[in-house]
């Protein structure tokens, strides 16, 4: 055999071995999102697609072919490594034509166009001779060009729309448990697939929150004008800088969905109030009314900022959130390296579902239009337990900032119930609120219709009124309750404004801190702590505080006004699902140790030495010969 033929044969064999090696490395680099990844969503990171091609490998690939020269090999390494990977992936074997098809091809302006920079290529892939390869190239190219998430900023933003063929850069995914109506997931972004405002790719992988909204859930006008409205939203976000507002990083459309990428919080307020997170048993020992009031005051300030202090291009604007609920308040335990007892509470910013058409202009909203018309068109199908009466009425109405204040009043009521009784009391309060009224269909709202008017449900009224205690240590509870009632008003114009609510909350937080800095009433101590007699009323020598239940008036004898003395130390359960003592300030009393048997809720007892598992709070305050104040609970 002639030396040239032998050399050519050896080069072909080396090329075939190289292609097998590269194909195997690309297969190993393929990213799949979770154990049950969706077909067609696999991708290969840019670094992996590029790193398989060293100058030596390109030299081996081109040996004996038309582009076997140093200059063309360098151009291939610099501009065509992704293209090479795609061709290897689809098992293309016309490597001698690589120079003519790719290296020499130019567009109408005499610029090279079949290179990495111009991926994905147009639907015309006639440069590939085999029909099968054309189709495979069109599909496979998206494996090598996953979306690079780009944080919105003055100088950078992601493109508005991606076709369904594009792959999201996620290597792991979990549906967030609090996500019910929305498709909300926790996603792990691959390294170097997120570009910050500074234009630099984040070098490590990290978790984000991703919300998917089907286009079918959005009006046709918004869907049609999405790109222009998204530009308006980006401008709008520039004026949303507030410590208690969580800004999304970027929004875009992907196939049939709108996608919102946001920082991942530790949990939301719903999980916080219900104790549904892993380290609740550790964290709850630090909870104080002082910290809770401070956190919810931050949310009130964020509302006041949205309602009155937005400034866009020199104009003072006003805006309504219109979807205030515990799931839309996120919590971060640590801020700037500082661990906070109850975390920082953050109001989620606006996603594309809340851009509303102006009644005066059916076209896309400019940012000024969006902010100036703070009484927005009625939200269809967006009712929550925290919705105001005007937003759930059958007749079309306007809803806006006043709706936010009703919702905030409901949130504040829940926070107050949590401060008094923890997750169990929040659960009991919610069940009482949602219970069926005689002759009425059950609803989840805080109000009901009575003679054509919206009134607070009796169960809600009884619960909240039970928290008004004529005791100096508990005066803050009554003051917060007054603030709640100032917002749960039927006529929107008569509700407290965000500024008024925030100022009153700040005043309570400041003036009552002498008492509110003690741990929440329902928290058992981790260790005995000496009582400060100057701050607290006298506790009986047996360490027990009197609790009054309505049933005890008729079923228990021997106690004035139906007072029931509950015995035994509290357990470290999250709320009143305990048989025993509810301390006025558990932080400041001694308790005996030892397990306490659980008592069923419906186990009625007549002995004053044992107690009930307590539930719904009722109307309160009574005095007796014991000269003390009491909290009364209905089982």
TrEMBL record:
InterPro entries associated with the record? Kinase-like_dom_sf (IPR011009), Prot_kinase_dom (IPR000719), Ser/Thr_kinase_AS (IPR008271)
A Pfam family per the record:
Pkinase
Where does the record place the region Disordered?
586-612
UniProt KW keywords: Kinase, Transferase
Q: Name one GO molecular function term.
A: protein serine/threonine kinase activity
Family annotation (SUPFAM superfamilies): Protein kinase-like (PK-like)
Q: Where are the transmembrane segments?
A: none
User: What are the Protein kinase domain coordinates in residue numbering?
Assistant: 174-508
Could you confirm whether the keyword Kinase appears in this record? yes
Q: Look up the signal peptide feature and give its range.
A: none
Q: What is this protein called?
A: Kinase-like protein
């Amino acid at each position: 055999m002639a030396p040239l033929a032998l050399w050519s044969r050896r080069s072909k064999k080396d090329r075939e071995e190289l292609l097998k090696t590269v194909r195997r490395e690309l297969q190993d680099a393929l990213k799949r999102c979770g154990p049950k990844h969706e077909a067609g969503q696999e991708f290969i990171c840019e670094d992996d697609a590029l790193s398989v091609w060293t100058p030596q490998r390109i030299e081996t690939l081109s040996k004996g072919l038309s582009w076997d020269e140093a200059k063309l090999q360098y151009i291939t390494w610099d501009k065509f490594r992704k293209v090479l990977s795609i061709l290897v992936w689809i098992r293309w074997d016309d490597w001698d034509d690589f120079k003519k098809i790719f290296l020499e091809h130019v567009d109408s302006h005499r610029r090279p166009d079949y290179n990495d920079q111009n991926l994905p290529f147009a639907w015309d892939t006639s440069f590939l001779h085999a029909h099968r390869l054309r189709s495979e190239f069109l599909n496979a190219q998206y494996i090598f060009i996953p979306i690079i998430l780009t944080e919105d900023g003055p100088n950078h933003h992601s493109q508005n729309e991606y076709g369904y063929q594009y792959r999201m850069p996620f290597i792991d995914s979990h549906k967030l448990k609090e996500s019910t109506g929305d498709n909300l997931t926790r996603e792990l972004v691959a390294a170097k697939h997120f570009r910050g405002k500074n234009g630099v790719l984040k070098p490590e992988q990290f978790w984000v929150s991703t919300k998917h909204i089907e286009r079918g859930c959005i009006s046709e006008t918004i869907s049609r004008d999405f790109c222009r409205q998204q530009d308006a939203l980006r401008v709008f976000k520039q004026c949303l800088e507030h410590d208690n507002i969580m800004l999304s990083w970027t929004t875009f459309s992907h196939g049939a969905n709108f996608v919102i990428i946001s920082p991942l919080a530790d949990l939301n307020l719903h999980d916080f109030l219900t104790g549904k997170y892993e380290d609740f048993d550790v964290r709850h020992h630090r909870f104080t009314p002082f910290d809770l009031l401070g956190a919810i005051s931050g949310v009130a300030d964020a509302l006041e900022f949205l309602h009155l202090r937005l400034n866009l291009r020199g104009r003072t604007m006003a805006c309504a959130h219109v979807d205030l609920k515990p799931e839309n308040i996120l919590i971060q335990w640590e801020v700037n390296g500082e661990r906070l007892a109850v975390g920082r509470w953050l109001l989620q910013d606006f996603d594309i579902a809340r851009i509303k058409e102006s009644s005066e202009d059916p076209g896309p909203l400019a940012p000024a239009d969006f902010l100036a018309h703070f009484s927005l068109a009625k939200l269809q199908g967006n009712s929550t337990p925290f919705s105001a009466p005007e937003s759930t009425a059958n007749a079309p109405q306007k809803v806006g900032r006043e709706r936010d204040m009703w919702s905030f009043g409901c949130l504040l009521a829940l926070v107050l119930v949590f401060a008094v009784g923890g997750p169990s009391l929040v659960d009991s309060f919610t069940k009482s609120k949602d219970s069926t009224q005689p002759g009425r269909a059950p609803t989840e709202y805080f109000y009901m219709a009575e003679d054509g008017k919206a009134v607070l449900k009796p169960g809600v009224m009884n619960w909240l009124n039970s928290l008004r205690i004529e005791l100096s240590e508990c005066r803050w509870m009554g003051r917060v309750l007054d603030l709640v009632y100032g917002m749960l008003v039927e006529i929107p114009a008569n509700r407290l404004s965000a500024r008024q609510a925030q100022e009153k909350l700040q005043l309570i937080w400041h003036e009552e801190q002498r008492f509110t800095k003690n741990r929440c009433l329902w928290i058992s101590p981790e260790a005995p702590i000496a009582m400060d007699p100057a701050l607290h009323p006298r506790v009986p020598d047996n360490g027990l505080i009197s609790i009054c239940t309505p049933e005890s008036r008729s079923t228990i004898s021997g106690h004035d006004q139906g007072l029931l003395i509950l015995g035994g130390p509290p357990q470290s359960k999250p709320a009143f699902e305990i048989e025993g003592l509810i301390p006025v300030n558990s932080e400041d009393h001694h308790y005996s140790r030892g397990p306490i048997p659980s008592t069923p809720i419906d186990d009625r007892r007549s002995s004053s030495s044992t107690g009930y598992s307590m539930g719904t709070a009722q109307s309160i305050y009574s005095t007796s010969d014991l000269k003390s104040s009491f909290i009364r609970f209905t089982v």
